[in-house]
Amino acid sequence: MKLTTDTPITLRLPDFARVHLVLVGAGGTGSHIATGLAALSLELTARGTACTVDIVDPDKVERKNIGRQLFCAADLGKFKAVVLAERLRGAYRLPAAEIPAPFSAPMVAPAARTLTVIVGAVDNPAARAEMAAAVERGAGSVWWLDAGNENHSGQVALGNALQVAPALGFVDSLPAPHVVYPDLVAAPKAKKRAASCADATAEGTQGLMVNRMAAAWALALLHDFLLDTVRYFAVDFDLRHAGVRSRALTTNELAPWTKARR
User: Fold this and answer.
1) pTM over 0.85
2) 16-257 has which fold?
């Protein structure tokens, strides 16, 4: 019998002096992620690393969003991206910019000594396909943290490449979310378009807390990526059964996306 071992891998990032976060989606999950980005940005700044935040979303605040997302009656009719960016600037004095338009890959331009991270919080494959395109265009210099959910479950994943190449216990890239979860960029098979998170929640088919949980896991992974040590690169959760399954940063877990050595 052949025994296999599962060896921990350490993620090694290049030196950077600035972090640029691009939040794509300001709705059920994104509005909750935004305040967490403020906390991370303030901590980075306190440690001497500059941080800027862009918030991208073409939608406006509707009545159905109140309570389910972090918006109030005074925000009705305003662009979600504008509301959240103004909130971050006013409450935390953060350099946050709003982009009230659909996300497209060219919006992300890698810069020298800048760690660029797209934080995806959308509910449609077309937007995720653009994020995947931005990662592929970045050739390893653009990271993508994606948070997605169904009615009572969800997943979060972080990556920047199609394949990885661990060496001597280290790795400088992780498999991108659309590589780990191909369905993220697959067109829905159903003839009728799937309901948005807001509609599903209003109908009672989606739990009120699933977006908040997706946001919490995304922020926890982003915190470790920016400020601590990454020990896993993806996590699946199920609120109805209190289930959590993480993909640890190890040789076995990375094996499906590891380049064959010559």
Assistant:
1) yes
2) Rossmann fold (3.40.50)
